[in-house]
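A common beginner's mistake is to predict each chain separately and then try to dock the pieces by hand. The better habit, illustrated here, is to supply every component at once so that their relative placement is modeled jointly.
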Amino acid sequence: MDVLYFAWVRERIGIPKERIETSAKTVADLVAELCAREERYAAAFADLSALRVAVDQELTDFDANIENAREVAFFPPMTGG
Amino acid sequence: MDVLYFAWVRERIGIPKERIETSAKTVADLVAELCAREERYAAAFADLSALRVAVDQELTDFDANIENAREVAFFPPMTGG
Amino acid sequence: MDIRVQEAPFDLGLETTCFADRQTDMGAVVTFTGITRDLPGGMDKMVIEHYPGMTEKALQGIAEQAMERWDLGDLLIIHRYGDLAPNDRIMMVATASRHRKDAFDAAEFLMDYLKSRAPFWKKEFGPDGTEWVAAKPEDEDALNRW
Amino acid sequence: MDIRVQEAPFDLGLETTCFADRQTDMGAVVTFTGITRDLPGGMDKMVIEHYPGMTEKALQGIAEQAMERWDLGDLLIIHRYGDLAPNDRIMMVATASRHRKDAFDAAEFLMDYLKSRAPFWKKEFGPDGTEWVAAKPEDEDALNRW
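With all components supplied together, the output reads:
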């Protein structure tokens, strides 16, 4: 699946997008997997309350199932308008 | 004092403005005086709840004192905007 | 603060651009425009009567109230009188504020007051004759919010 | 319904004029424009990041909700991304309705949703470095009204 990062999440992790092979069932599982990988992920995901997640371009929460997802994106709260 | 009429009040009375010498103390006194004068005034002032009044260009009510007024205006509820 | 009562048409786009251009420290601009409706079987012409002298004072008073009640950087009111055709712009207001809520609330307040407290009267000329536009009870009610 | 996500500037006056011109049976047009503030010692540049694909879907969804909830004839959303200078127009919405209340409420609703639910992120470049604009708790609270 494609994993995308935006704004300071992108800056902290250092890349805008990557392809990840995972058997994670939920967004939270994926986050745990990423955090175990490298320090920069653990830093970016340190405070989940400061993050938002979209699965297949729909805003959702960290409990969301991602078993059939094509795209998961992490980003800070939006500041449009 | 100058007495002004607007919208359908002007049409019913037939003139936009007239100069009136009066000793009326309030707007209501002035209205009574005008109604006693001619049928067209009585017709225009038949339903005071459908009318608004301004004394010296300030919206007020029929109890307002007009002893020192320069200008009294009668008109239907406004429809600006 | 810019208040105009005029017979001539105004250029909505130009007025909106100029108003926004002169805001440097305001992040939010709201405009409202009232347009004569162009309906099948509707009116051919609208004539707006007003009370010269009082109109300007009423608009000035409404504008000052808005500037006092909200954190506004600027506001604009343009209101036409005289003859209008269907689809003509009758009037506009514009408000500028640092945060959007002030600009929105002030623009709504200005419109609620203009509707019922500014001395304008509209007469419509249609296929079935002429008619003075009646004030709506809900416009009077709208004032109670403020 | 017209929704545009673009890097290029837009002409606020022209967009407002065109939007108003294409309303024939709507008497009320409301616009909102967000402008980058130009403050002494403030930022030199803003960069807006967005999520291509999701942005368009989010705006479409917000617009459809507004059309369902209010009696609107039309609406317009334009939102820029990329580099903006102080005093640039970031975005605009326009709404058209028969009665002014619908146009006002729908425009406020669109703005409240755009603020917190459309995937845009603003970064400011100032004399003291760069900073991601933080979401405000009151913007999240504003959503609870609807």
